[in-house]
Structure formats: structure tokens, C-alpha cells
Write a structure and sequence with these properties.
mainly alpha, elongated
């Protein structure tokens, strides 16, 4: 089996020296440097979370075993069938509290 050549790009050199313990001790998170180099606005823009904002009261994922005919009846009603099922359960919960 022939020996593999070591990739020259992965070896330390003058422009990319191997880190020492002192280098690791001095290291700081990149986000701390972004604010210093580019300003606080850039730091906030980079740190800003992507995607949909979190809801104040998020739904939970719960496994629930239901009869197939019940689920199929709600699915036949079209889009939003899970919200309608949730509304029925909520109404029943409120009725039980009275």
C-alpha cells in the first residue's frame, strides 16, 4: 500500500504557524472582535438570529395515540386540521374547569 502524501496546505508554515498554549490562552471569541474591528452595528447584525422569531407561548411536540377514524375525519376537513383538533381539546378543557 503506497504511503499517502501529506497535504502541504494542512502543515504549519510562516503564514499559518501551529498554535501554542499561549496562543490558545489569548484567544477570544470571534464575535468579540467583530465589534471592535467593524463596530457594534456589525456585531449585532452578525449575532442576529435567523429565521422565524420565537413565539411567546410555543407549542410542544407530543406523541398522542388516537383512533385512525378520528384523525382521518379531521384530515378530511383540510388544512388546519391540527389547529381545529387543538381548539376542540381546549374547549373541552375549559368546560371541565367550570
Amino acid at each position: 500500500m503506497p504511503k499517502k502524501k501529506i497535504d502541504a496546505a494542512s502543515r504549519p508554515d510562516d503564514e499559518n504557524p501551529e498554535w501554542t498554549r499561549e496562543d490558545f490562552k489569548r484567544a477570544r471569541p470571534a464575535m468579540a472582535l467583530v465589534g471592535e474591528v467593524f463596530g457594534p452595528e456589525a456585531s449585532q447584525a452578525v449575532a442576529q438570529r435567523r429565521g422565524r422569531p420565537r413565539k411567546a407561548s410555543p407549542k410542544i411536540n407530543q406523541t398522542l395515540r388516537l383512533d385512525a377514524d378520528v384523525v382521518e375525519a379531521y384530515r378530511q376537513q383540510g388544512r388546519g386540521w391540527q389547529m381545529r383538533m387543538n381548539a376542540v381539546l381546549r374547549a373541552h378543557m375549559n368546560d371541565r374547569r367550570k
